[in-house]
Structure formats: C-alpha cells, structure tokens
Specification:
The two termini are about 20 Å apart. The protein has 5 helices and 7 strands; from the N terminus they run βαβαββαββαβα.
C-alpha cells in the first residue's frame, strides 16, 4: 500500500492525479528548523522524518514524505495562518524572488530503502500594491500555504515567472520526481 504522510489537501489532490490507490496519515511532528540548518537541509530532514514516523504504523508499506520551505532573502516564509501575516508576506514578496525548497522522500518501510530529492522552485513576484494584495487574499485565502500563494489557483495572477523543472513541486508534491522514485520501487506509470 502507498501512504502519503501528510494531511495537506493540496498534496492529496496532486497524488490523486497519478490514479493509484493510496491512503493518507498525518505525521504530527515539530517542523521547527534546527539552528544554522539550511532551508534545503530542513526540507529534506522533515520529509524524511515524516515518512519515518508514519512507517512506524505501516511497516510493510511505501511511505511518501514531503516538506516545503519557502525563503525570501534570508527569511523563511512559513504558512501565514492569519490575514495580517499574509499581507505582510506579500508586501515583502512584491517585486522579489522567493525560493521554494520542496523535498520528497519515498521510504519502503519493509526493506528500509529510502530515496530523497529536493526540487528548487524560483518564483518572481509582480510588484503588488495593497489593493492587489487584498483582492488576491480575499479570493484565494492562502493562509495555509507557505509564502501566502496558491499558484494553482488565483495566485498565478500575482507572479511574473516560475522557474522549475517539476512544476508540481511548487504546490508541494513533485510528481515528476515521485514517478521516478516509484519506478525504482517497481511501480511503473502509466
């Protein structure tokens, strides 16, 4: 059985695109970055830890762990959770480049085989005024999204460009990379 170690509705919707049966289970772990840990290292560590935690309850299954860390300059852009924090994040992002580090881990709990990758996504934001930010936030309400942007929805209107070889990585589950890792476990798609 394939298990997605996540409670994210966005990751679940992406995985459904592959048309393979899977279950989900939230890993519930502390996602605080370690001191002096790079965003890439944080995302890789958390993706691995999420998969390992869920594997404890599913010792015969394939576990998918994911994590994403968004960075603007040297500041981590967490999920804003509130309107005020989302406004502040988008004001800061206006006209700037935000980098998303999306890590993926596929753990075969039965064999212990662990595969990992981290996909870098560079998003250049348009210059935004306060009215544009408010209209966007009222439309998408992206309070549960790192960087306050739902690129798969109306968020596409506030960016100038997205640079990445695996476009689903920005939503939180890099499907191109996942299909490669699944193939190494004998799951060939299509």
């Amino acid at each position: 059985m394939l298990i997605l170690a996540s409670s994210s509705p966005y990751r679940r919707a992406l995985l459904e695109q592959l048309r393979i049966p899977f279950a989900t289970e939230a890993p519930h772990l502390d996602e605080t970055p370690h001191p002096s840990e790079s965003p890439r290292a944080t995302s890789l560590r958390l993706a691995r830890q999420k998969a390992q935690k869920v594997a404890l309850q599913h010792p015969e299954d394939l576990i998918i762990g994911c994590d994403q860390v968004a960075v603007l300059g040297d500041e981590i852009m967490d999920k804003p959770l509130t309107h005020e924090r989302a406004v502040a994040q988008l004001q800061r992002a206006s006209g700037q480049l935000m980098v998303f580090h999306t890590a993926l881990c596929l753990l075969n709990a039965r064999t212990g085989n662990l595969q990992q990758d981290c996909i870098l996504v560079q998003v250049r934001y348009r210059t935004l005024d306060s009215r544009q930010i408010e209209r966007y936030l009222q439309t998408d309400r992206p309070y549960d999204c790192a960087g306050s942007t739902k690129i798969e929805a109306f968020g596409i209107t506030i960016v100038d460009s997205v640079d990445c070889h695996d476009p689903t990585a920005l939503v939180g589950l890099p499907l191109i990379t996942l299909t490669r890792l699944l193939a190494q476990e004998g799951i060939l798609l299509p």
